[in-house]
Amino acid sequence: MKQGKQPTVSQQRQRARRRALQAVYQWQLKDGEEDAATLIAQFLEHQDFNGVDQAYFESLVKGAIAGSEAFESQLTPFLDRPLAEVDQMERVILRLGAFELTERPDIPYRVVLDEAVELSHRFGAEQAHAFINGVLDKAARAWRAEEIAAQ
């Protein structure tokens, strides 16, 4: 980030998504032993949140963790394999995408898909972006049918 230039809201939210991805990944690796509040406190203490939408980060972490079981069952019809066989990082990206698609109607579905694909490019396996895009696109068509029809 150039000195003196503040990141845009979009950039701040992108950074929040990256931090949330890391926090939810940590939660998932520890089989949910830590609660969202503990993870958030750890990340705020140990990570640089300059230029990060902290409130959005907290919302993503809390929402993805609280709705984890529901998101898993809601995503199952759109998967080509059992969720247990989905890569750990891809599972986190799907959880975050499911949260945004179901709980954040203020964010256009295309933005949710684009951001999830970007996360999978950066943190996922080589072809993860295609899988993530396919699953979340199907989910968006089901969960955001009105929004898609209005375009």
Which secondary structure elements does this structure contain, and how are they paired or packed?
Layout (H helix, E strand, L loop, with lengths): L8 H21 L6 H11 L7 H13 L1 H8 L12 H16 L5 H15 L4 H16 L1 H5 L2
Q: What would you say the CATH architecture is?
A: Orthogonal Bundle
Low-confidence stretches: none
Class, according to the CATH hierarchy? Mainly Alpha
Q: Radius of gyration over alpha carbons?
A: 15 Å
Name the assembly state: single chain
Number of helices: 8
Helix content: 55-70%
Total beta-strand segments: 0
Envelope shape: globular
Tally of separate domains: 1
Report the structural category: mainly alpha
- Estimate the mean pLDDT confidence: 93
Q: Return the CATH topology.
A: N-utilizing Substance Protein B Homolog, Chain A
Name the CATH superfamily assignment.
NusB-like
Q: Tell me about the biggest sheet?
A: none
Taken in chain order, the helices and strands follow as HHHHHHHH
Fraction of residues in β-strands: under 5%
Q: What's the gist of this structure?
A:
The chain is 70% helix and 0% strand.
